[in-house]
Design goal:
Blueprint (H helix, E strand, L loop, with lengths): L2 E5 L2 E4 L4 E8 L6 E8 L6 E6 L6 E3 L7 E6 L4 E6 L8 E9 L15 E2 L3 E6 L1
Length: about 130
């Protein structure tokens, strides 16, 4: 019963900030690599960022690098996506995903590598 629940989406003006949360329940969280993806209307789902189980290694898509930051609180089984300097083109449904970690502390940037997905949370950035 691994379950992922995103929260924190909403409406924000361009230049503003939002913090998304993804809470994981059902299994030990500390050994799960996590990813953030998004899908805008009429577009394919794309990687936003990925974080290893320890948080020690991260990956960010070029489109969000320098503006978005991931972090995780393994004690609370939650991963966060801090989004700053938001742009209208950031408007999308944002999804978190999890993957049981291998022995190495890796991140995963392909959606096919993830086992569990949240329901998504909508972020709308107005101009």
């Amino acid at each position: 019963q691994v379950r992922l629940v995103e929260s924190g989406g909403g409406l924000v003006q361009a230049g503003g900030s939002l913090r998304l949360s993804c809470a994981v329940s059902g299994r030990a969280f500390s050994r799960y690599a996590m990813g953030w993806f998004r899908q805008a209307p009429g577009k394919e789902r794309e990687i936003v960022g990925a974080i290893s189980w320890s948080g020690g290694r991260t990956y960010y898509a070029d489109s969000v690098k320098g503006r978005f930051t991931m972090s995780r609180d393994n004690a609370e089984s939650t991963v966060y996506l801090q989004m700053n300097s938001l742009k209208p083109e950031d408007t999308a449904v944002y999804y978190c995903a999890s993957r049981p970690s291998d022995y190495s502390d890796e991140y995963y940037a392909r959606e096919s590598e993830y086992y569990r997905w949240g329901q998504g949370t909508l972020v709308t950035v107005s101009s």
